[in-house]
Amino acid sequence: MSQNTKNPDNCNVNVALDIIVGKWKSIILLQLMFRGTKRFGELRKLIPEITHRMLTSQLRELEENDLIKRVVYPEIPPKVEYSVTEYGQTLMPILNEMHKWGTAHQTHMAQKNGELRNSL
Amino acid sequence: MSQNTKNPDNCNVNVALDIIVGKWKSIILLQLMFRGTKRFGELRKLIPEITHRMLTSQLRELEENDLIKRVVYPEIPPKVEYSVTEYGQTLMPILNEMHKWGTAHQTHMAQKNGELRNSL
DNA sequence: CTGGATCCACGTAGATACTG
DNA sequence: CAGTATCTACGTGGATCCAG
Fold first, then answer.
1. In order of start, what are the domains of chain B with their CATH numbers?
2. Do A95 and B49 touch (CB under 8 A)?
3. Taking Cα atoms as reference points, which of B14, B89, B21, B91 lies closest to residue A16?
4. Interatomic CA–C1' length for residue B81 and nucleotide D12, angstroms
5. Residue range B54-91, pLDDT digits in tens
6. How far apart are alpha carbons B76 and B85 in whole angstroms?
7. HTH hxlR-type domain location, by residue (chains A, B) (predicted)?
8. A window 33-52: Cβ near strand C (< 7 A)
9. Of A15, A99, A65, nearest to A57 (Cα)?
């Protein structure tokens, strides 16, 4: 959880932040949103940098927040599928805004740093 | 910085995330946005839980990202004023979306946890 | 294949004291 | 009043091994 319940303006912003800042959560969510249901191993391939342990824990947290659904098939070998829940889809506006802003920000900072000097 | 430059869907989302997740950044931004220019000491009063050291460092990071402006008045005793830059205002859509979602999420989780049981 | 448990390294935040 | 420096404590992530 965050902190601060005394600043009405803020607290709910951090509620959202706390849920999506898991360092890998947003990328996992986006993968599942855009590429659909995926198995554990498939996610690992889609996100090569993430460790086994991290993928597990981040998926658990996302599941606890009802953002993704975990379906276990009682087979040997085990098979588990993850997908974004309907509720998880409600994060789209936030992720969209962040994507837009993040993209623009790269340009902003590039200009500030003198790169992109008028190249005409 | 984040990680991952191989997943086009994601990277720019984390660009934005990395900038606003400083644990105190969003609240500082919101205070400055809604209450206007504030001095260092005023911010401390508005956010009592933050430590002196943290306020300093978070303000510095926000400044480095062009989100806030720092104005030093060469007086004795020192006086420094912080305000949101025009560029910082572009974060409003994100903060708004997160605020809305965060608020709704509290309700969502309350229901999930069996609270709010139909009290008719 | 999926995932839990353990050990360890590192970053980040808190507390405190000091400076201009 | 505003800011810096140091020292410490803790959470979090990485690596590795074990299990169903």
1. 3-89 (1.10.10.10)
2. no
3. B21
4. 35
5. 999 999 999 999 999 999 999 989 999 999 999 999 99
6. 26
7. 11-110
8. 39-41, 52
9. A65
